[in-house]
């Protein structure tokens, strides 16, 4: 069962598109075609609300205000007006994010996904990304259950990336964190260490190179 | 109320109480003088007249005559008009008198005033003289505390009455009641005749008369103002004189000029708006036409059973995306072209903003075969900014990097926090064709504004770049464009960190 999402959108076409896209992405959307005053009883059991601000009936901001009285459910606001006052107001009223029309359906689904993504499985010191397991407490790294011997520098590098799996980190910030400026030198040195580390980790793109930026911890899928 | 009537009413309202106060002050001054005169006279004469009084208390009293001691009232009564000063003592005063050779005391009874009347009383305020009037109760009571008591009839009578305790304080002449009248020559403020009223009335009349030309000029000015207003302040009113009315005319002309200039400004703005609308329509219509063309092609291909032309599809998507960005830019331009741009600053988290911008262009980048990646610091990067303008600024350079790239190209959006200098640094790097350095400096000189701003040519990043430039300028951020080390363009935006005050 997918997560339940409430879509409040008056436009027939756009509403239908959003609902279809969300359903295709594995969510269970409920579609309200008009604004209603919300109360604890009338709010369906959902994990996220996609709210259009320009609605007949009740104005989107009022719905948001009502909602925030009794619920902390994430709200993604859709707005056709690219207006600062509107955005600032929506955020102050407790919206979590906003999107300005027009947008690609992909973008909307991605935003919903980002909002509903569970926090990284980081039980204390242990971070698991795909088949890679990094134990910060014991300073151990293992791939598919097999321990991999890494140097202090390689471990620091992995631990730094593991803080935000899936997000790219710049070479310079990594070098600053991992390298000893007096002994280890430049960002180029970092690349050398990375290529050695990749060999140790074996098949799969655990350490991905990101163009123009640096590196990212991948889930190890083979390219 | 008309100006003249108002002035008359105001003048009367001021003059009446002032006249009354003047009369009152005059009367009270006369009374004070008469009282003092009477008191001095009584104390001056009584010691001399005491003997006579005590000798014949039943007949003592009557008009006071300074020439001799107070004697029997009916003997040698002088005529009222008899000048008192210099009157030699005549008739041997049997009961003493003022010491010889001494000047006579001041006259209690000057010309035109009734003579003072004096009566003596004993300690119980009883007089032996049957003609003596009863001592007023108030005066008798006042004797408990003072030696001289006065009944003042300031208005409306001119009579003065004093009761005095004699220094000896006993016998039938222990108290003396004296009655007299005031006299203008003693201490009046106003002259005897009412001639002074004449200049007062003359001033009043002159004032009303002088107002005539003033009223006339004001009427004239009013007419001129009405004429000018009906001609939308096109002609100025005639300025007459250097006085307040002249100043009024001048201020009116200044106000008229201000209104005219504002009207002109409004006209200009209206014209600019019409221009803007025409340009906008033109700008949006082109990509819309291209989009329609792509859609028609796709439809025809589908009808002919041909496989879907992915290229046309992607182009159509690109046009749609371009249009969206164009409309946002046009809206931003409308704000930025205003005479004074009102930045609606609030606390903006750049990390979220950058992710949002990259998220917006990622779908189209994917279609165009351009990879777009982003890196943000792990800590919040908060700035005080107008979120719409800043987002549009960053979106423009990001989209330019995607749009003017080639399939297989890369774009990286990197946000860094330079904690040491409390600044953020945002870099948008691509490996597209880039812009030659000469062209870059030329663009930068003109604030990235140019004819090609609205062009769709590959180097026509103009409108978007100009908005980025203006937004950076307004926020006080530094915008730098330089060739990237990957062969494309590197756009850097650097600015101060910090939440808005308050």
The CATH top-level class label of the largest domain in chain A = Alpha Beta
Rough outline of chain A: elongated
The strands making up the biggest β-sheet of chain B line up spatially as 1-2-5-4-3
**What characteristic shape of chain B results from the CA principal axes?**
elongated
What is the total tally of β strands of chain A?
A: 13
Note the main sheet of chain A: 5 strands, parallel
The helicity of chain B comes to 40-55%
CATH topology of the largest domain in chain A: Rossmann fold
Please give the alpha-carbon distance between the first and last residues of chain B: 53 Å
Number of strands of chain B: 12
SS content category of chain A: alpha/beta
Number of folding domains of chain A?
2
Gap between N and C termini of chain A: 30 Å
Q: What is the percent of helical residues of chain A?
A: 25-40%
pLDDT averaged residue by residue of chain B: 80
**Tally of helical segments of chain A:** 7
Which regions of chain B have little confidence, pLDDT < 50, spanning 5+ residues?
A: 67-107, 451-460
Query: Biggest β-sheet of chain B: count, sense, barrel?
Result: 5 strands, antiparallel
Region (Disordered) (chain B): 57-113
Protein name (chain B): histidine kinase
Biased composition (Pro residues) (chain B): 90-107
EC number (chain B): 2.7.13.3
How would you portray this structure in words?
With 223 residues, chain A is α/β, with parallel strands linked by helices. Chain A has seven helices and 13 strands. Chain A folds into two domains: 4-116, Rossmann fold (3-Layer(aba) Sandwich); 122-217, Winged helix-like DNA-binding domain superfamily/Winged helix DNA-binding domain (Arc Repressor Mutant, subunit A), CATH 1.10.10. Chain A has helices at 12-24, 60-70, 84-92, 105-116, 152-162, 171-178, 187-201, and strands spanning 4-8, 28-32, 48-52, 75-79, 97-100, 122-123, 126-129, 132-135, 140-143, 146-148, 169-170, 207-210, 214-217. In chain A, the strands form three sheets. In chain A, strands 2-1-3-4-5 form a five-stranded parallel beta sheet, with helices on both faces. The longest helix of chain A has 15 residues, at 187-201. Chain B has 502 residues and is α+β, with helices and mostly antiparallel strands. Among the domains of chain B are: 3-78 and 92-192; 343-496, Heat Shock Protein 90 (2-Layer Sandwich), CATH 3.30.565. Chain B has helices at residues 3-55, 137-142, 184-187, 197-230, 244-303, 310-336, 350-368, 387-403, 437-445, 462-475; strands at residues 62-63, 117-121, 148-152, 159-165, 175-181, 345-349, 371-375, 382-386, 410-418, 423-430, 478-483, 489-496. In chain B, the strands form three sheets. A five-stranded antiparallel beta sheet of chain B has the order 1-2-5-4-3. In chain B, a hairpin with a 4-residue loop joins strand 9 and strand 10 (423-430). In chain B, helix 5 packs antiparallel against helix 6 (310-336), helix 6 packs parallel to helix 10 (462-475) and helix 8 (387-403) runs antiparallel to helix 10 (462-475). The longest helix of chain B is centred in the middle third of the chain and has 60 residues, at 244-303. Chains A and B meet through helix 3, strand 5, helix 4 and strand 11 of A and helix 6, helix 7, strand 7, helix 8 and strand 9 of B. Chain A: Keywords: DNA-binding, Phosphoprotein, Transcription, Transcription regulation, Two-component regulatory system. Chain A: One of its GO terms (molecular function) is phosphorelay response regulator activity.
